[in-house]
Design a protein that fits this description.
This protein is an alpha/beta fold. Helix content is about 35%, strand content about 25%. The strands form three sheets. The chain has a four-stranded mixed β-sheet with strand order 1-2-4-3, covered by helices on one side. It has a four-stranded mixed β-sheet with strand order 5-6-8-7, covered by helices on one side. The protein has a three-stranded mixed β-sheet with strand order 9-11-10, with helices on one face. Helix 3 crosses helix 4. The longest helix has about 30 residues.
Length: about 240
C-alpha cells in the first residue's frame, strides 16, 4: 500500500521497490503524481526529493492541463476524425444496405441505413477501428516475438480510460486500447513492444527499462509523443 506525501495542492503516492534510484512520474491524463523509491528510503527523504522537484511537477501538470483534448464526436458530416495520426473529414451516407466504412486520402465515409442514431454510428466506426487494429497488431506481435524471445498467447482490444495497454504475464496475454487506431503506427508499435516486454519483466523495474532501451531505443520519445497527442473526450476516471 502506498504512503502519501502532501505538498500543498499536490498529492504524491509513494511506493518502495528493489531499485537503486528514485523515479518521480506525472501521469496523463489528470497529472497524478507517483514516486517510487528504493526499499530502505525514509518518507522524509522521499519528501525532500519531491520538494526539490516541485517546479518540474507543476510544469508537467500544467502541460497536461493545456494539452489538446478532442471534443466529443457526434459522427456527423464534415467532422474531423483521426486515423493513424492523420486527420480525415467524415462523410455520412444513408442508404438501405449493411453499414460500412470506407477510406480515401482525405475522407472517411460512413454508410448506414436511414435513421441510424449517434450511438449506432459510433458503434459502426468502433467496429471498423477494431478491424483496422486486428490488421496491424498480429504482424507486429509476429515481428517482435522472436526478437524478445516471448510468446503472446492472445491479444485483446478494448476501450481503456487510463492506459494504452496492459499485460497479464502469467497468461501470456496483452490488452490494447482501441484509441490507438488514432495514433501513428510507430507509436502503436511502441505500445505493443512495451506490453510484450512485460512478459519478461512484469513491473516497471530497472530491468524492464533496460530491456525496453535495448530493443526500442526511442521509447522515451515515443512515449512523450503519445502522451502529447490529443486525448479522447471521455471523462477519464481512475
Amino acid at each position: 500500500m502506498s504512503e502519501m506525501i502532501e505538498l500543498g495542492e499536490i498529492s504524491i503516492a509513494v511506493t518502495r521497490k528493489d531499485i537503486k534510484n528514485v523515479h518521480l512520474s506525472v501521469h496523463p491524463p489528470d497529472g497524478r503524481v507517483t514516486l517510487v523509491a528504493p526499499t530502505g528510503t525514509r518518507l522524509e527523504v522521499a519528501r525532500a526529493y519531491a520538494i526539490s522537484k516541485l517546479r518540474w511537477i507543476r510544469a508537467q501538470q500544467e502541460k497536461l492541463e493545456n494539452q489538446a483534448r478532442e471534443t466529443p464526436r457526434e459522427f456527423i458530416g464534415r467532422e474531423s476524425h483521426y486515423l493513424w495520426g492523420r486527420r480525415y473529414l467524415l462523410t455520412v451516407v444513408e442508404h438501405d444496405a449493411k453499414p460500412s466504412v470506407t477510406l480515401d486520402h482525405k475522407r472517411i465515409t460512413l454508410s448506414l441505413r436511414p435513421g441510424g442514431d449517434q450511438e449506432k454510428r459510433a458503434s459502426v466506426i468502433h467496429e471498423w477501428h477494431k478491424s483496422l487494429l486486428h490488421g496491424l497488431i498480429p504482424p507486429l506481435i509476429e515481428k517482435w516475438e522472436p526478437r524478445l524471445g516471448v510468446a503472446v498467447n492472445a491479444y485483446f482490444l478494448q476501450r481503456m480510460k487510463t492506459k494504452w495497454g496492459s499485460c497479464n504475464h502469467r497468461a501470456g496475454h496483452i490488452r490494447l486500447n482501441t484509441e490507438l487506431v488514432k495514433k501513428p503506427k510507430d507509436l502503436v508499435e511502441y505500445v505493443v513492444v512495451h506490453e510484450m516486454i512485460h512478459l519478461l519483466e512484469p513491473t516497471h523495474s530497472e530491468r524492464f527499462v533496460a530491456l525496453l532501451s535495448e530493443h526500442f531505443p526511442t521509447w522515451r520519445e515515443a512515449r512523450a509523443e503519445l502522451n502529447a497527442l490529443p486525448l479522447t473526450a471521455e471523462a477519464w476516471n481512475e
